[in-house]
Protein: ABC transporter ATP-binding protein
Amino acid sequence: MTRRTSGGKAYPLFRPSVHNLMLALGVASGTVLSAGAAYLLGAIVDGLASGGLTLGEIVARLTTFLGVSLAAALAKFALDDWLPLKANLRAEVEASDGAIDQLLAMPQRAFERHDAGHFLNVVNAAAFGYGAMAVYLNVNAVGYAIAVVALLGCATAIDVLLVLVFLCGLAVYFAVNWGPMHSAGRLLMEMMPASEAWQEEVRRLVEEKRAANAGAAEEFYLQRFEGSTNEYRAFLRRHRLADTVQATLPAAISPALQVAVLAVCVALWSAGQVSLGSVVAAWQLFSLLQTPMAGICSFVSFYVASRPNVVLLREHAGEAGEPSGFEALSTGEKDLVARVEGTLWATPARGEDGKRLWAGEFEVRPGELVVVKGANGTGKSRLLDLVRGLSDLADLDGEAVLAPEALDAAYLTYPVPVVTGSLAENLLGREADPEAARVLDLGDLTERAITDQPLNLSLGERQKLGLLRALSRPEPVVLLDEPLANLDAGVRARLCDHLAGLRGRKTVVAIMHSGELDAAADRIYEVRDGRLSRVC
Ligand SMILES: Nc1ncnc2c1ncn2[C@@H]1O[C@H](COP(=O)(O)OP(=O)(O)OP(=O)(O)O)[C@@H](O)[C@H]1O
Structure:
């Protein structure tokens, strides 16, 4: 199986490349061209003030001014807005794809540390936030910095005094905006747990709608949802306010700063330090500075807010890369599919605090039909999960030897997962085994549209779908958690015959609550009084 995994440090913030530099230059190009236009305007004003320009020269300069201004507008749209937006979208989707790959690669025990809301947040908000921030940092922010430097360069070309005035203006600008920039970002960071809890509650409401209606528990669900909504909304309100202040403050203080800069320039002009054209150009240049400065401000705020996303994604990547512990369990012992010895616990807790499922020994040899029995909740499904490498190995106090065939086994799990689509799509890329299809008597299942709505399939039909999926797989080991559940008598009998007929060709382990497979079984294990032992 091929997976896209991130090599080196996962989710790096700095991604220097020629491509990113080109994009950054594009971001700066609109502002730089506008600065050229401002410079030309100053020259036109100076020419007019000195009275030394002919009509032809004035027309030529105005035409150049118009051309440069139009080019600046075009560059602003195409290079400053559109190309970075495209790069942004690509980076967002790539980060989300990577997070999904890591989710699939993640060992079960790491997966079980979190609820679904966490993963929804990782794949959606955090991945998109990271992708946007990476482009913002490596393209937009670099472009804004280039633009600021270019504007300061233009100011130097007009008059070096202007640079000092501009730098003072920039310092005031950042000082005023610093607080709101940080508080908006910080609030977003603090809001994350409430946002995860709210997403989890939405998921539960959607997935458990039927339980809510059937159990007349709408009020219960609504109250729980309201609780998490209120908490989330309290954060949202504060964040929206801070975000609005942060977004509008630059525009609010800009006019005041521009007037202050103009006043200083006019004072320098009346003192004979700069020309009238320089005052006009300085006014233009300083107003051009607003865009990159506002961009840098929103970047700082975005950066503060997005740092937790990066931490979250890196943790996610780390958990995906954690060894499951199952890799080293194969000793290459011939004629062995699985051997498990020791005590199986429901959770990592031991002793008084932990729930002991059973202690004992379990063994499966190739080609055998093995039956596992026991009362409800005694850990039979946990045993199959362990054999399939889908649980936390730390839950076993003892030793396990598992052949790669066991870790790769076809597995009928409970409840049977259903995919929206046709029956063929529910086989997840495999062809239906004709013999299994005959045994299961699929009826109109082959033609029907299947959805994950609980009532779309009867319990028996859902079971048949899961069985067909497991029995159609080519893997030599098949694990079946209660294969006969919800099937009618005819299908049960045919299925038992079919499973008995697989002996010698496939290794089958079946959890059973009845004796229908006992006669055909090579081994029968049973959990009795907390001990798993071979009874036949
Ligand atoms: N992560 C977990 N945290 C707490 N308890 C757990 C966890 N996983 C499993 N258990 C508990 O372990 C017990 C064994 O579950 P398991 O599904 O293996 O039982 P089973 O023998 O297959 O039962 P049944 O015959 O009812 O299907 C259950 O009581 C279950 O609640």
Remarks:
- The pocket of adenosine-5'-triphosphate is lined by residues 346-347, 355, 357, 374, 376-382 (CB under 6 Å).
- The two ends are 39 Å apart (CA to CA).
- The chain has 15 helices and nine strands.
